Amino acid sequence: MIINNKGTTNPSTIADAFNTYFSSVADNLISKSFLVKNTTNEKDPLFYKGQNFTQSFFPLRFNNTTTHEINQIIHSLKCKDSYGYDEVSTRILKMSAPYILSPLTYIFNKALSTGIFPDRLKFSEMKPLLKNGSSTALLNYYPIFLLTSFSKIIEKIIYVRLYCHLDVNNILVNEQFGFREKSSTEMATYYLLNTVLSSLDKQKIVGCLFCDLQKAFDCVNHNILLAKLEFYGVSVIANKLLKSYLNNRYQRTVIKDNTNNKISSEWELVMHGVPQGSILGPLLFLVYINDLSRTISKLANNVLFADDTSIIIHSNQDEFKTNIMSVMNEITNWFQSNLLTLNCNKTHFLQFLTKNKKEIQIRIMSSNSVISNLSNTHFLGLTIDSALSWKDHMAELSTKLSKACYAIRTIKPFMTFNILRTVYFSYFHSLLSYGIIFWGNSHLSTNIFKIQKRIIRIITNKGKRYSCRQLFKTLQILTLPSHYIFSLLVFVIKNKGLFTTNSEIHNINTRYNFNFHLRSTNLTLVQKEFIMLEVRFSIICLKILKFCLMILGTSKLY
Fold first, then answer.
1. Sign of dihedral through CA atoms 526, 528, 531, 533?
2. Which residues contact 440 (CB under 8 A, 6 or more apart)?
3. Helices (H), strands (E): how many in the chain?
4. Which of 361, 300, 288 is nearest to 328 (CA)?
5. I want to staple 442 with a disulfide (CB 3.0 to 4.6 A). Which of 4, 29, 374, 390 is the partner?
6. Rounded to 5 degrees, what are φ and ψ at 2?
7. What is the pLDDT at residue 168?
8. Which residues contact 138 (CB under 8 A, 6 or more apart)?
9. 67-76 and 90-114 are packed helices; what angle lies between their axes, rounded to 10 degrees?
10. CB neighbours of 418 closer than 8 A, spacing ≥ 6?
11. Which candidate, 259, 256, 271, 273, places its Cα nearest to that of 128?
């Protein structure tokens, strides 16, 4: 390992170096942000709160827990053999549950009533894992945090009460899709593409800023976070408990030497950030970044997935450049006020184009750095291009699926038929199904279907020209087109509130009143996209269902 330009193999030295490195990254970023804030931006973080939230919130009080609640939480935890510094895994915790429920209930209720989080639950171990590049460079590693199993129980107790408070008071913005119930990357992608397509259909110029924040979770300022929580009604004892939870936390790095012995660094105090690997940490981050969305809502639409921030600017040609600069200034000021750092090297701008529109040349600056203009970018696991053709995504997906074919071909001589089918679903199918409602209707999806048929022939040991029709039935696997239609219908059923029915458009009593309304569009691009196809497939399936009920003698559809 290279440390201070010198090579070393001493495990203790390496462990200490990792611990210092992971701790100092956030310190350095916050120091720079604090310096920039004092010199260029004097706005207090709560300025944005008062500007965007005018109502007051009822104070939150953490109700006591019960043995029944704790027992349910323990049983909901994943059964793992990994453990924190106390060496108590969730597997052991589940086995011991009947004997420790009463003392745990007493301890946790004491914490909830006094506002003091147990000190022994604020220690976390960190294991470095290699991302890519040379294994001798510290910056090529990322940390995996292991907290105590007991900490997860009390965090879940607090999480349930805090999330209920945020949900009842409608505090979290609708544009935030990360770490929320009944939300997903699929919903976030739908919102982004729907906004883009609707704007293009109205003949507007559309562009999107895909922002990347450096070590966002590690750079959360505790004082700012606690002030925001107090603004939202998390005050008095509840605020005191969360302050106790955040302050005086310690971490150490654990590695193994050549003989597989465990080597640990010294414990180091954590000054910033929300605990990673925790249950409560992600929710606290959502509170921290919550007011960003409303800060720019008058200028642009935005999609947030935790720290992934995508800002959609749509306007006429005369105002487009001005709006982009205004949005850039607003988010830069917000990040500076909240001591977060925009990574300009990984922040990109993408302009969405139709056949009749040319790209507008624009140079976007942030903190004396130029934001790059790209023709395609990654968004929550999908590759989106400026024409929404899905060409680049298909190319990447084809490569991944071909590797899956090779893997199954390699292990085939050693596996049974049922195991090969299981591997198909866990490896190939998971790649195939992700985001299929968005790219499944592309003409390029025929190439993906060919790869699917190839892997079906590999599993069943058939030749290249053998028909796959019966093989799909035998394996009980949906073909790509069938899986696409099925996924569309499932999405519509889960999100019926996103679509308009005919009865909401007019008050005339017709037989199609409760059918989804198929809106008129100007662009062929919009007509072919998933949003319109979802409605069309739903209408077709509804007609089929009505026909079946009519045959069975049922006159009404309930």
1. positive
2. 480, 481, 483, 484, 487, 488, 530
3. 21, 15
4. 300
5. 390
6. -90, 115
7. 92
8. 1, 2, 3, 17, 18, 21
9. 140
10. none
11. 256
Provide the angle, in degrees to the nearest 10, between the axes of the packed helices 90-114 and 149-168. 50
The predicted structure's pLDDT at residue 555 = 43
pTM of the model: 0.90
pLDDT of 557 reads 39
Q: What is the pLDDT of residue 318?
A: 85
The residue behind tokens 């000190």 is 119
Residue ranges for the chain with pLDDT beneath 50: 554-558
The residues near 64 (Cβ < 8 Å, ≥ 6 apart) are 109, 112, 113
Dihedral, 352, 355, 357, 358 alpha carbons, nearest 10: 80
pLDDT at residue 541 in the model = 65
CB 101 within 8 A of CB 67: yes
Cβ-proximal residues to 278 (8 Å cutoff; 6+ apart), any chain: 145, 147, 151, 152, 155
C-alpha distances out from residue 142 to 57, 215, 253, 502, Å: 39, 11, 12, 52
3-state secondary structure 138-156: HHHEEEEEECCHHHHHHHH
CB 330 within 8 A of CB 296: yes
Write out pLDDT tens, residues 25-67: 877 787 776 666 555 555 677 776 666 677 778 889 999 999 9
Euclidean distance between CA atoms 447 and 215, whole angstroms: 38
